[in-house]
From TrEMBL:
Gene3D superfamilies: NAD(P)-binding Rossmann-like Domain. This is SDR family oxidoreductase. It comes from the Bacteria. SUPFAM superfamilies: NAD(P)-binding Rossmann-fold domains. Belongs to the short-chain dehydrogenases/reductases (SDR) family. It comes from Actinomadura fibrosa. Keywords: Oxidoreductase. Pfam families: adh_short.
Length: 242
C-alpha cells in the first residue's frame, strides 16, 4: 500500500502522536486526511478534514464511518493512561482505559472494515506500546489495556485477511508527548514514530517496533517470568538513571 493518494482517518489527531500522523500523511502525499477528536475545535492542522469523534461512543463512531466512506487507511491512535493499578486502583478507571484503549479501537475497526473492503482492502494501524508486554506499578491498568489491544490486533488481522486489509501493530517505548512529559528520558519524536508506522504500512508489515526500547523488550519475551521481571527492573532503573 502506498501512502501517496491514500485517504486516511486518524483518531486523537488534535495533539501528540495523532497530530504527527496527520501531518506526516499530508506531507507524504495522502489525498485526504480526516483528523478526528472529541473536541474538533482543538484540531489546528491546516489541510485536514476535521470530524468530531469519541471512540468510546458507538453512535459517534457510526457517525464518523458514515461521514468518511472513502477511508482506505485507519490510524487507531487515540488512547489514555490513568496511572491506575489493578488491585488497589479504581475499577472505574480500569474500565475507562479498557473502553478507550481496546474496545474503542475495536469499535472503530468494526465500523470501518466494510469501507476498507469496498476501497480495496486498505490498512489499519493500531498504536500499541512496549507495555503490551510488561507491567509496572502505577501503570498496570495501561499494561492490561495494551496487552488486550495487542491480542485484539492479532485477532482482527486474521479475520480481515480475506478482504485484503493489512493490520499493523505499532509498538514504542516513550514518545515526546504530553502523556510522557513526566519521564526525563530519551523519547522518540512523534514525527519519527509516524514515519516508522507509515513505512511499515508501505512495506506490508504486520508489526513495527519503532524504537530500541520496544525491540529490546520484545526480545526478552522467551524468558521465564522471574527472569523477565528482573531484566525489566534493571532496564527501568537504567532508563531512569540515564
Amino acid at each position: 500500500m502506498n501512502i501517496d493518494n491514500t485517504v486516511a482517518l486518524v483518531t486523537g489527531a488534535n495533539r501528540g502522536l495523532g497530530r504527527a500522523f496527520a501531518q506526516r500523511l499530508l506531507e507524504r502525499g495522502a489525498s485526504k486526511v480526516y483528523a478526528t477528536a472529541r473536541r474538533p475545535e482543538t484540531v489546528d492542522l491546516p489541510g485536514v478534514e476535521v470530524l468530531p469523534l469519541d471512540i468510546t461512543d458507538p453512535a459517534s463512531v457510526r457517525a464518523a464511518a458514515e461521514a468518511a466512506p472513502d477511508v482506505s487507511l485507519l490510524i487507531n491512535n487515540a488512547g489514555i493512561s490513568t496511572g491506575t493499578d489493578l488491585v488497589t486502583g479504581s475499577l472505574d478507571a480500569v474500565r475507562h482505559e479498557l473502553e478507550t484503549n481496546m474496545f474503542g479501537h475495536l469499535e472503530m475497526i468494526r465500523a470501518f472494515a466494510p469501507a476498507l473492503a469496498r476501497n480495496g482492502g486498505g490498512a489499519i494501524v493500531n498504536v500499541l506500546s512496549a507495555m503490551s508486554w510488561f507491567g509496572t506499578k502505577g501503570a498496570n491498568a495501561y499494561h492490561l489495556t495494551k496487552a488486550a489491544a495487542w491480542a485484539m490486533t492479532n485477532g482482527v488481522r486474521l479475520e480481515l485477511a480475506e478482504q485484503g486489509t493489512l493490520v499493523t501493530a505499532v509498538h514504542l517505548g516513550l514518545a515526546d508527548t504530553d502523556m510522557a512529559a513526566g519521564w526525563p528520558v530519551d523519547k522518540i519524536a512523534p514525527s519519527d514514530l509516524a514515519d516508522a508506522a507509515l513505512d511499515g504500512v508501505e512495506a506490508g508489515s504486520a508489526e513495527v517496533l519503532a524504537d530500541q526500547w520496544s525491540r529490546d523488550i520484545k526480545s526478552r519475551l522467551p524468558l521465564a517470568p522471574e527472569e523477565f521481571n528482573a531484566a525489566m527492573d534493571r532496564a527501568l532503573a537504567a532508563l531512569i538513571a540515564a
